[in-house]
Amino acid sequence: MTDAPPVPWRRLSGGQRAGRVVTLAVVVFGAVVFALPFFWMLSTSFKTEDQIFTYPPQWIPTGWTWENYVEPWRNLPFALFYRNTAIITFIAVVARVLTAALAAFAFARMRFPGRNGLFLLVLATMMLPGQVTLIPLFRFWSELGLVDSIAPLTIPSFFAGGGAGAFTIFLLRQYMLTIPVDLDDAAKLDGAGWFRIFWTIVLPLSGPALGVAAIFQFTGEWNAFLEPLIYLRSEENYTVQLGLAALNGRFALAYGQTMAQTILSLVPVLLVFFFAQRRYVQGIVVSGVKG
User: Fold this and answer.
1) Radius of gyration over alpha carbons of the chain, in Å?
2) pTM of model > 0.85
3) What is the pLDDT of residue 230?
């Protein structure tokens, strides 16, 4: 089923035109409101320290400076921070999406006793705040001697752990329910087992939902702050978010440098979203069709 093409402006009645104008005005107003903090951050990243606190605020700097983008790289190993973040994010995204896809396939396509109850139990984990399990998990990793390593930040992803894993399972299950079951039956007649059905039929057809899950996971892992703060001690293991926090000393706050590095840290997230925007929208829409 495809959406009907929009009605041309000249064929609309007066009331329909007014409705479209009001809708467009509300959308534009909301976009401006949400974009203002970003533009203020971008403007501040080019300001000197004395311009940041001027009143009334200056949206356009009078004297542009690139020093805020250069100085942090001299004082801290941000290249190392970006490398650490990229490694952690890549491992966590790939592991969590694949393991969540396996679990979602079982809940969507296989029939076994207690399936619905087990699925509700998985969804219930999303209601459990991460702070509740923070101390037990820290003691667990500490006893294993894996604190100050990427292990606590990546190994749970191989089990689709946490609320993010449960949400990914839910999202992928909803999408897999829309794939015709007749494809499974045809594959079984050809002698295919469950794993082959998953790998060669269901997984390729779930591309839009997998893209949405990957974007969500990438954004969450790239911007994660609390867990790296808890588990990482050495500066050489820091992520980008910990590096941003390290820019601010005990007695001084480098606002301009922090804004500049924040802009740079947003670039990978924005690129991933813009390149996968169509698949993101498609996966979100289709995943909510069938329950």
Assistant:
1) 24
2) no
3) 92
